[in-house]
Design a protein that fits this description.
The protein is an all-alpha fold and about 160 residues long. It contains six helices and no strands. Helix 3 runs antiparallel to helix 4 and helix 3 runs antiparallel to helix 6.
Amino acid sequence: MKLTYLTAAFMGSFLLFNCGGNESTTDTEDVTSEDTVVTEAIIETTTESTPHDLVMIDNQKWTIDEGMKLSIDSIEMRMSRFRAQTLEDYAFLSDDLEHHTKSIISNCTMKGQAHDELHKWLLPFIDLRKSMDSIEQVSEGDAIAEEIKSELTIFDTYFE
């Protein structure tokens, strides 16, 4: 698919530069406009958006420290079993997630790009966890719990 867009961009550029000469300004503007559309299509096709702008190198997941992994596993288990009925249930969950998040942070010995990528995921996760502290209805907590589950899926996609 990229090859098709690149071919179209090349052809558009070829036409733009080789079809000049005695043509009017309007014709050149039309070709330039078409070339711009093709160029924008190439940019959209080759630029993939990832959650939190996380990246992988050669499709390899980032390896995290064992202590951190235990905390993540505990969060995942907690979320898979969590069934709230009251605001107090969410308050307890928030405290539990805060405890595990602190454990992740205290066990971190990662360095370099793996550490940076983890922070791209961890900071939004912490903000999401904190938002649970201010809910006023169980339905708000339900929505946040689903977002947390989505964040854990993102984590599993990029880290091991």
